[in-house]
Amino acid sequence: MDLRRLKSDLMITGIIIISLLGMIPLIHIFLTVAWRGINVIARDPLGVLFKEPPIPGSEELGGIGPHVLGSLILISIASLIGIPISILSAIYTVEGMSKRLGPLTSLLVRIMIEFPTIVIGLSVYGAVLLIEEFINDLVKIFGLGGHIYIPRFNPITGAIALAIVMIPYVYTQSEDGFKNIPHHIREAVYSLGFSRIRASIVLSSYVKSALLSGIMIGVSKILSETAPLLFTAFGNDHYVTRFPDVFLNPIGSMTLWIYKAGLSPYDNWIDLAWAAAFILLMIILVLFVISRYIIYKR
Amino acid sequence: MQIDKTSLTLFIVILIIVGVIAYYVGASSGGISAPSKVETITISIPTTITTLITYTYTGVMTTSAMSATPSFTYTIPQFTTQVTLNGGGSSFVNPQMQSWISVFKDLTKGMVIINYQSIGSGAGQKSFLEGSLDFGASDIPLTKDNYEKVKASGRGFIQFPVIGGSVAVVYNIPEWDNQRCGPLRLSGEVVAKIYLGEIEYWDDPEIRSLQTPECQNILPHQKIIGAHRSDGSGTTALFTMWLSKTYSKWNQTVGYGLVVNWPIDQTGRGVGGKGNEGVTAAVKSTKYSIGYVEPAYAVKEGLPIAALRNKDGNFVLPTNENVIEAFKRGAKELPPPDQYWGDVPLSFIYQDGPKAYPIAGVVFVFVYTDLPKDKRDAFKAFFIWVLTEGQSSRYVLSGYIPLPPELAGKAIEYINTYMK
Lengths: 298, 420
Prior knowledge:
The structure holds two protein chains of two kinds. In chain A, 76% of the residues lie in helices and 0% in strands. Chain A has 13 helices and no strands. Chain A has helices at 2-43, 45-50, 65-94, 101-112, 117-141, 155-179, 183-191, 196-206, 208-223, 227-230, 243-248, 254-263, 267-297. In chain A, helix 1 crosses helix 13. Chain A is flat, with a radius of gyration of 24 Å. By secondary structure, chain B is of the alpha/beta class. Chain B has two domains: 5-35; 38-420, D-Maltodextrin-Binding Protein, domain 2, CATH 3.40.190. Chain B is elongated. The interface between A and B is medium-sized, with 36 and 34 residues.
């Protein structure tokens, strides 16, 4: 009897120790990023947030302003593209608008989660090249002359790549939300004689917490993406303020900056990479807490 | 199925319309932004600096060169609307380029924004080739492959040098007394034999015979570890060019390039490092090793730099003066900008001249001449400024060597003639 008790206690202690060991990397990452990031940001909080990056290897600290702004622009455009598509397609599949295409959409979107994100970035880059070639062929056919050039690196292609990364995450969350609507509620809504579209709108307000948490998960997913931006947003260390130029030139993002500056040999760039990592981590943590809270309340 | 087809065509049509509109919006607003007229924002350089530079160069300024050589003042045209230029490539030139960019941005009151990303020399050439960036920069001219592709595309292009640099040979021999014996002396042939695996020990007679008599016996009987770059790099290209030029067997068996097959790796005494920082760290932490890096890295990490035997038989260090000497003796005439420039970097390597440092090289910039008008004006203004005032000691960071005035003058001539 005692031996069995001892064995069980030993087992439980072992499990606790192992789970603590498993948490060490997480805690370590969090503490290192927080410590080094706060140290850099504390030197000049507003400068780090708004100034342009400094000359590498100089004494100056500068800031990551263009990259913070770039991340915000990219994420806003990507959300504008990605969120409507994913929620609408979730409605399309769950509300049975099409018997054959619905399940197929569901299956394909679930496959999309597994795509390597670098491949998504590359294919968007490739698509730009193809479209340019196609337009130039048209130009030749109609004999207009001249060469039409689409800028390879710009916020729109970056946002499209991010939206493609985002869609499956938002989609699966919203699909689950719509699927979990109790049968009697759906029947009640339809019995009011609404068209399918009106009914879907009513139903989405019923599952809005599921939709919101899906959006949060999607946004925090694309916030931390670097690979799809390498061939699309490319990175820009300066503010571009003129109107059409913003959408025709490369744009920076915090992840691209961490990738580039973290690998560089220059101390002031590496410091700013830590600052960017800290800001990113904070935003993602806040989004995570909000989405957990929404799910908990549900 | 039919619905899908129509929606797909609709989508493509919308995409095309959006693309065309975006292009024309960009092009039309770009047309307005051309610099209206030349105003005088002459940036005068303190006279001390100007005299310093003329003093350094007086010896070489021939009359013909003088006509092509601009003064160190340049009037930047005024830009009334914001222009953005995108470039990328060589990581060696990155700090210098960012420094020029930030000064130039201030000089144009924030109107010319240049975005330079250090993606590496190879990627710089490729991005230029594909037209995904407005200009590319690389530690060596367009490679034969890339050159032929650009030529085949039929688009006009130019390449020109912007700044110089050198490669230092570093070593880690605890027994060597730098105070008493000075820097270790090496020749291209000996270094080539080390990297070929033919010379195995530091006390090899060939290495000993290069040292001063009183220091010949300090060298230990220890195996030599050879550190080199594992990634493609302009530093490797310049270093292997030097070995190829000084030892014919190296030229026949290994040759030169951004990446080469290192024979020393097969003997188990080779170490690869990523980037200059990787090689510096490898040499610093490995006793009895030898490596090659940009001098700034060796100075930063306190690694001893070897004196190399130049063509005249003198042992020289990569000081500014010695590297400038090599540039002076190298190519005085650059080939026409749309020709293959493979021989240009070779002309700076192992040049004669009593003080010339044997491993010197310049960074090249590539650009298509058919840039949109506003970008072309910004490009011209920026690089002409770089090639004039940008070369003065006020703007050149330590570790970089200003171009000799003949080369800078030629580069400006090419920009002006081919990018009207």
